[in-house]
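Sharing in case it's useful to others searching the archive later.

Someone asked me privately for the predicted structure of Glutamate 5-kinase, so I'm posting the question and my answer publicly. Question first, with the sequence:
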Amino acid sequence: MRPEIQKSKLMVIKIGSNVLTKEDGKPDLARMASLVKQVSFLRENGKKVILVSSGAVAFGRKEITLPEKIDPILKKQIWASAGQIELINTYKNLFRELGITISQILVTKEDFRDRKHYLNMKNCLLGLLSQDIVPIVNENDTVAITELMFTDNDELASLTAAMVNADTLILLTNVDGVFDGPPSDPTSKLIPHIGTKMPDLDHVISPIKSSFGRGGMLTKLSMAKKSADLGIQVLIANGKKENILLDFHEKSITCTYFEPKPSKQSPKKWLAHGDQYFKGEVIINEGAKTALFSQNISSLLPVGILEIKGDFSKGDIIRILDVEGNKLGLGRAEISSKTALETIGQKNQKPFIHYDYLYLFNHV
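And my answer, the predicted structure tokens:
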């Protein structure tokens, strides 16, 4: 028995490629129309909604036939470039029939790395919502290269939900949620509730990725865990089911529900996803480690730093390690690497990472 779904005011809904495509890979326009009507219903019932939508590549594949020998990344860029126009126009026409205005926001990982850029993007999204506009977010596949790509749109949705301080994240896929075995196996059972003390489920999750997207259930599980840790309730549900978002509103939805922890401060939500964006590392001593993980509010001071790696500027994200190489957390550097090297190990210095910009992992 899972806890009751919490009331939602600001939600991010991710619609996966397999939800918006038929078995032959062509866009499922009827499914899109149904989901748009359900989003409209949620809005009428007082909820602000941001959509993170896949599907550009599927729309592009429908429009353009490319030779097999073309580089896979270039092929995807071409399809995404052409398909994004068709995808957003389809959304525009469907929402316009219901009297709703939409906007398009295309992003890359770089947009989340810089704190100032991140806040500009956050202000834009909140500004659109304040004007009763539905933002539709997607990865800018046309300019993203492999090392800068999101794992998939589950990661983008999780980042977006943290950015705007959403209370709810719904990941719509083509299965009912997380199962204790392969979903295709009739003996596998749906896991309806994952609590704040989350078990390790990686061994029961199929590593198979979707036919038309980059991600799989392992990514969804990882992003759901991270979002729930930040205080966001997360649901993984089947977007192919009729009226799935209405079922959410009625609290009768079949899904895997991730129970949220207490909400964290906005800067910590930004840092929580920074493990791929860090510009440098610091190795700290046992005294600093004990202080950071104590019940007292503690910043990371230069006196507790043993070693500094990397060339970074003030404001960059830094990863914190102990002497054994364990990853302890992430933080925003208050000084550059050059200045940090001059103060390493010294007492009576300003914090290297202030507590307000410090995010600690939970495994210690």
